[in-house]
Amino acid sequence: MRLPLLRPADLTAEQQSLYQAFDAMVEGGEEYTGFEVRDADGAYVGPWGVMLHFPEMGRALGRFVDLAQQLPGLSERARQVVILTVGARFNVAYEMYAHARLASRAGLRADQIATLCAGGRPAGLAEDEVLAADVATALTESGPLPGPLYGHVVERLGQDALDAIVFVTVHYLALGAILNAYDVKAPAAS
Hints:
The chain has 190 residues and is mainly α. It folds into 2 domains: 62 residues, no CATH class; 106 residues. Helices cover 63% and strands 0% of the residues. Helix 4 runs parallel beside helix 7.
């Protein structure tokens, strides 16, 4: 990573407040198990390690993330398809590392996860997952979301699902840009 990891003892008061918010989030949910979020010294890695350098931005992004994750209409499997689609599109190492584990937990097969991480469309996805991947892919290309795709997704999945796909895509585009800007790698396999 291009920024130093910040150990708890080295944090300013403003960073300490954000670190504690990250602790509450990470310790409060099973979503953050199965992959490295802190190193052996207690320093946050991944997006948290970057955001500690920018506490005000970290709090604002955290609020957006909380709201995006609460949107109804999207299954956890489809959500993971969106995230891996975005991560693969921009080769976001940490995003693919963490969400490959979460996608597996959500029920995607290893071959499906590998195909998504390679930028492909795996066989055997449910209709909502295929449409979620189609929207995420379209949003990572130039121009507006094609009208026929927009209409089809709303017709088949509903407006809530389309909205959730859009804002989950935005969420992971933002995190992906941050992770790639500061060259955040996936932790070494243990």
